[in-house]
Amino acid sequence: MESGDQQGVRGVEGLSALWVHYDSVQNMSEAAVAAAERGDEETAARRRELAERAQLRSPAPSHLDALAISIHLENELHNARFDVVRRALADGASWSEIGRVLGMSKQSAHAWYRRRHRKPAVPNPTATSR
C-alpha cells in the first residue's frame, strides 16, 4: 500500500478507519449501480458524487489492500479475544460465563482457548510501500 510514512497507519484504530472508509466508498458505489439499474438516475448520481467526494478527500484502499487490512485486523481481534479470555479467567470468570458470552458451551469455549491460542502476527499492510 502506498504510504509516505514508512511506519504506515498505526494501530488497529487507524486500520479500522481505513477499512470503514473502503467499505463506505464501496457501499456508495454499489448503491449508485443499484439505483441506476432501478432507473433512479437522480439517486445514482448522488451516490456516485458521494463516492467520488469521499475518494477525493481520502483515497480508499484498493481491493487487495483492503483484503490485507482485513486479515491484519482479523488476527489482531482474534489475539485480543484470546487475551481477554485469559484475563477473564485470571479474574475468576468461569468457562460457563465465557462460553455464554462467546455464544457456545463451556466445553467449546475451553476447547477453543486450548486449541487456537494466538494467531501469528501479520505485518501491518500499510507499513511497506509497493
Topology at a glance:
Layout (H helix, E strand, L loop, with lengths): L10 H28 L2 H17 L5 H28 L4 H8 L3 H11 L14
Helix pairs in contact: 1-2, 1-3, 4-5
Would you kindly provide a written description of the structure presented here, covering whatever features stand out?
- With 130 residues, the protein is mainly alpha-helical.
- The chain folds into 2 domains: 1-60; 62-129, no CATH class.
- It is 71% helix and 0% strand.
- It has 5 helices and no strands.
- It has helices at residues 11-38, 41-57, 63-90, 95-102, 106-116.
- It starts with 10 loop residues before the first helix and ends in a 14-residue tail after the last helix.
- Residues 1-7 have low confidence and may be disordered.
Rg of Cα set: 20 Å
Order of helices and strands: HHHHH
Secondary structure class reads mainly alpha
Terminal Cα span: 6 Å
Overall shape = elongated
Region (Disordered): 34-57
Biased composition (Basic and acidic residues): 37-55
Short descriptors:
130 residues, mainly alpha, 2 domains, elongated, 71% helix, 5 helices
Concise account of the structure shown:
By secondary structure, this protein is mainly α.
